[in-house]
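protein under study:
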Amino acid sequence: MQFTSEQRFDDGVLERAFTLGEIPGLLWTPGSVAAPAPLILVGHPGGLPTMYPRLAARARHAAAEGFAAATIELPGSGDRPRIAAAEQARADLLRALRAGEPVADEIVDRLVLPLVDEAVPEWQAALDALLALPGIGGPVGYSGGVISLGVRLAVVEPRISAALLFAGSFVPRSIVEEARRVSIPLQVLLQWDDEGNDRQQALDLFDAFGSEQKTLHANMGGHTGVPWFEGDAGNRFFARHLK
């Protein structure tokens, strides 16, 4: 991990850009904490330059409560090389949506499963590097999407103690089966009128999770209409399980 730039905000939060090999990422740490800060991995649908305002707002909100937060770019997104098969799967998905047709399982599999397979080891490598930094310690949480990526991490990464998952992306059937093996505390955020989300699929995924502690927060509104108070709810969730 190599840090490439940094800036400190008026609230004391330090933001540092880094690269992990060829993968760009961002790290936010609180201005002052008495002990190593718990870490939240901030998930997103890809494209750090475009997503930056929303990611930074989420991370700084968490840092104000004493959490460190970090994210990395997804394979094939942002400034990373495009993946031809993923681009074709995305085009096929958009074509089906525009035509008002059901999205076939094989399209979802082609789009999501290779992404999860490649991204999860990268997030684990980032976690190795982040936990080696001074001022950052466990436990670790995962917050955001792509929800299939969050599911896989919750299954295979024992250092993740709790997850706040954002519904709103298509989920392969095999990921729904993996969800039955998730046992950590979960909070799932669902926008009831999300124009790009299959609501019933999101509810079926929530039902499949094997966690004894799982909570669904469903709010009216579209994909980008998440109420501001859900940020506070997320901090309270992580305070219960990471502090």
Summary: The chain is about 40% helix and 25% strand. The first helix runs from residue 48 to 63. The two ends are 26 Å apart (CA to CA). Residues 193 and 221 are 5 Å apart (CA to CA).
